[in-house]
Design a protein that fits this description.
Layout: E1 2-5, E2 11-14, E3 17-18, H1 24-35, E4 40-42, H2 43-51, H3 59-77, E5 85-88, E6 91-94, H4 102-118, H5 122-133, H6 152-174, H7 178-191, H8 196-208, H9 212-230, H10 236-247
Antiparallel strand pairs: 1-2, 2-3, 4-6, 5-6
Helix pairs in contact: 1-3, 4-5, 4-6, 5-6, 7-8, 8-9, 8-10, 9-10
Keywords: DNA-binding, Transcription, Transcription regulation
Family: Belongs to the AfsR/DnrI/RedD regulatory family.
Domain OmpR/PhoB-type: 1-96
């Protein structure tokens, strides 16, 4: 079976054996087609992706060559793949079946995990979401030399990744695994200093484990970051967490929406 992975470096595999193209521009075209799999990608979109608004006069012919090379790769490596990459009147469509692309598998597992959490099955939800997160090998398309910062497709995938993390942490909180989460949450607040949800979970986990001084320090760190970077205070919900830590009351957790 031909499969594709983009949650990390670009990978093309046939029955587990890697056959990823090596030519940089061919890899870049494939990356865009995978990001927008099962949707037609216009030639103009490919031009912008490859040449950032400075396409040469030969762009159309060159793009056709890259498409030919991809189609040849698919047909060589996987019998019956002639309908995988389809030429449309306005562009090209890479048709992907369920299970062939890691982003599709990831999204499906996240939806299943969220449904389990909504049915109050945190144990099963945690396992499902952890499985989804294990598909991530690094930043999407980390080895493609393009301005990925400007890509809304990459931003969307990274937002889904954060959401999956929040849901899995929520499931683990419901299981009473606060102590085990502290180290992970410390790392997350460093990686995402403006994410108040992660900070709130760290405060809650520390307080739950009887580490009130550290919980208050975690709140202080958040307040300092928000003040220095944005001139803001923590949200009323997070301020309420601090008051509850100070008074020794049970901390009301901010649930993942």
């Amino acid at each position: 079976m031909l499969s594709f992975n983009i949650l990390g470096g670009l990978e093309v595999r046939i029955d587990g054996v890697e056959c990823t193209p090596t030519a940089p521009k061919v890899r870049s075209v494939l990356a865009l087609l995978l990001l927008r799999s099962n949707h037609t990608v216009s030639q103009e979109s490919i031009f912008d992706w490859l040449w950032r608004g400075q396409a040469p006069r030969s762009a159309a012919t060159t793009t056709q060559t890259y498409i030919y090379q991809l189609r040849a790769l698919f047909e060589r490596e996987s019998a019956g793949s002639e309908q995988l990459l389809i030429t449309r009147p306005t562009g090209y469509t890479l048709t992907i079946e369920d299970g062939q692309l890691d982003t599709i598998v990831f999204a499906r597992m996240c939806a299943e995990g969220r449904a389990l959490l909504e049915r109050n099955k945190p144990g099963e939800a945690s396992l499902k979401l952890a499985g989804a997160l294990s598909l991530w090998r690094g930043r999407p398309l980390a080895d493609i030399c393009l301005d990925l910062e400007a890509s809304p497709d990459i931003a969307h995938l990274e937002e889904l990744h954060l959401r999956a993390l929040e849901l899995r942490i929520e499931a683990d909180f419901r299981l009473g695994n606060q102590r085990e989460l502290i180290a992970e949450l410390r790392g997350l607040v460093v990686a995402h200093p403006m994410n108040e949800w992660f900070h709130a979970r760290l405060i809650s986990a520390l307080n739950h484990c009887g580490r009130r001084a550290e919980a208050l320090q975690a709140y202080h760190n958040l307040r300092q970051v928000l003040s220095a970077e944005l001139g803001l205070d923590p949200t009323p919900e997070v301020q309420n967490l601090q008051r509850q830590v100070l008074t020794g009351n049970d901390v009301r957790l901010l649930a993942a929406a």
